[in-house]
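Researcher: Let's do a round of design. I'm pasting the structure tokens now; please hold your answer until I've finished.
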């Protein structure tokens, strides 16, 4: 069946995950409707509620502080609105403090009346919690509320601002339960893994610029140890929205330090790590959003990651082809250990969904099946929204890389809708050095729901044609070097050498076999 388990770590990740799950439910088809191109069993599981009714819930684990869950949807006795911290994932005793109940958002109330008028865009009220957007009912085993009392006080800083606090938070929760429930993996994860027939992998959506990056690093390391390898482990490192009180240079530097440490940890253990910024360095005029809104930022991030991995959940059909996690990793790694990729996307109106395209492995070194000369070769074009690159000029002294050429090693594209890209090019027997590009096509466009903010200025009937590209290229090394230069003086002395060496070793993976003709990466 090739199931995928999704793990969400932190509030920003849970906003992203909420958009993701709402979108998955939109792909559902019912009696007398044509079978969906999406294989829902990859991300959902069939079950039975205590009252005997059939259920269909996401394969998901959702971690956050208990106070950030808001009013979770409740249905037929299977879903809980109030969390029982006495039986939660914290293995030791805890004191229960009962606060006033949280009212449901008007948008959620409107969804409870299926025969009423369609709800307008969040009923005109911004969300207070990620659950204010959620169309989805989750299994009780999906919900992992963490009481604030168990957060380690490792510094005078806000305890969930520090990468190290997140790592310690994980290890505190990982303490074996005297009652015999085992460690965190045994308590939370194994049940989900063992009910899968043929697990394709796990995708972790995590905050990257706060403590959740440290939590994710420890979580992925344990997964790798327990599952006997790191294949099929995709991590999306999401940058949170920009709060006005966090605009100071010190706050931005702390966020960048957390992102750098998360990159070091996750690049070591994940098979693919994709950072997703909250403020794209390159963006088109049709993208209009509020970088200070978790709702807006998460919608942008969710659109990109949902399409980038879209082929992993497709049902094999005459006009679509499934590309599983390991298939795509093979392309982005491109014969090396290049497991940090940048993500770009372009968006246009979904004018037609009647196109027929076939997915093939293509090679940009070939044109119409004939060899082309090296001086005629052009790198794959840049897409409109760069979700990877960051502007660090106002944090530390960095060198601009705008004028540098980009060398691409591997690229996985997903094309949804009619982009007029034409037929795929074939690969000949002889090849010269250049990137291998895998392109997946689908006529199924991206649905915009009433829970989705109006951030894309395109005229469509609630559908978007999207083109994404996951790329490993020299641009990855360029940004990692900039991050290393900026944060190395702020890393503790006992960590500085290990972090610096780890980042430089990672950069070397994006230089082997290719000479940029520049010494920009050398120490001064």
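Researcher: That's everything. Go ahead.
Model: Designed sequence:
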């Amino acid at each position: 069946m090739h199931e995928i388990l999704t793990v969400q770590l932190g509030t920003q990740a849970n906003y992203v995950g909420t958009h993701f799950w709402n979108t998955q439910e939109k792909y559902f088809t019912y009696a007398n409707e044509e079978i969906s191109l999406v294989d829902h069993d990859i991300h959902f599981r069939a079950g039975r509620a205590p009252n005997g009714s059939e259920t269909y819930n996401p394969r998901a684990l959702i971690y956050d502080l208990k106070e950030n869950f808001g009013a979770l949807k409740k249905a037929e006795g299977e879903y809980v609105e109030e969390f029982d911290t006495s039986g939660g994932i914290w293995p030791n005793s805890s004191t229960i403090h009962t606060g006033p109940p949280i009212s449901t958002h008007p948008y959620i109330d409107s969804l409870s009346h299926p025969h009423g008028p369609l709800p307008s865009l969040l009923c005109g009220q911004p969300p207070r919690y990620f659950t204010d957007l959620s169309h989805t009912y989750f299994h009780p085993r999906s919900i992992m509320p963490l009481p604030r009392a168990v957060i380690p006080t490792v510094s005078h800083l806000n305890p969930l601002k520090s990468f190290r606090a997140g790592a310690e938070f994980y290890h505190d929760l990982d303490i074996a339960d005297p009652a015999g429930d085992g460690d965190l993996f045994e308590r939370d994860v194994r049940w989900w893994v063992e009910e899968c027939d043929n697990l394709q992998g796990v995708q972790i959506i995590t905050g990257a610029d706060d403590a959740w990056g440290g939590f994710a690093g420890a979580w992925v390391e344990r997964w790798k140890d327990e599952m006997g390898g790191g294949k099929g482990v995709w991590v999306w490192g999401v940058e949170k929205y920009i709060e006005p009180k966090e605009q100071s240079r010190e706050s931005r530097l702390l966020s960048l330090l957390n992102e750098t440490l998360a990159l070091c940890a996750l690049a070591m253990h994940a098979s693919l790590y994709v950072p997703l910024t909250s403020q794209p360095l390159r963006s088109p005029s049709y993208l209009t959003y509020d970088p200070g809104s978790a709702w807006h930022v998460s919608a942008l991030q969710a659109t990109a990651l949902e399409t980038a991995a879209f082929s992993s959940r497709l049902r094999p059909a005459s006009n679509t082809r499934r590309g599983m996690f390991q298939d795509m990793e093979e392309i982005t790694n491109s014969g090396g250990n290049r497991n940090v990729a940048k993500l770009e996307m372009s968006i246009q109106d979904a004018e037609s969904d009647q196109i027929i395209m076939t997915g093939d492995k293509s090679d940009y070194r070939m044109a119409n099946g004939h060899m082309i000369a090296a001086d005629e070769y052009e790198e794959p074009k840049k897409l409109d929204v760069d979700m990877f690159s960051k502007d660090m000029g106002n944090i530390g002294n960095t060198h601009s890389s705008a004028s540098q050429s980009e060398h691409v090693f591997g690229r996985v594209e997903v094309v949804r809708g009619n982009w007029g890209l034409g037929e795929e090019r074939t690969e000949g027997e002889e090849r010269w050095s250049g990137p291998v590009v895998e392109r997946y096509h689908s006529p199924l466009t991206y649905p915009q729901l009433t829970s989705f903010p109006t951030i894309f200025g395109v005229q469509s009937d609630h559908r978007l044609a999207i083109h994404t590209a996951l790329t490993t290229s020299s641009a990855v090394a360029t940004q990692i070097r900039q991050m290393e230069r900026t944060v190395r003086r702020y890393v503790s002395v006992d960590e500085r050498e290990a972090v610096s060496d780890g980042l430089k070793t990672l950069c070397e993976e994006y230089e082997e076999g290719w000479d940029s003709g520049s010494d920009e990466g050398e120490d001064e």
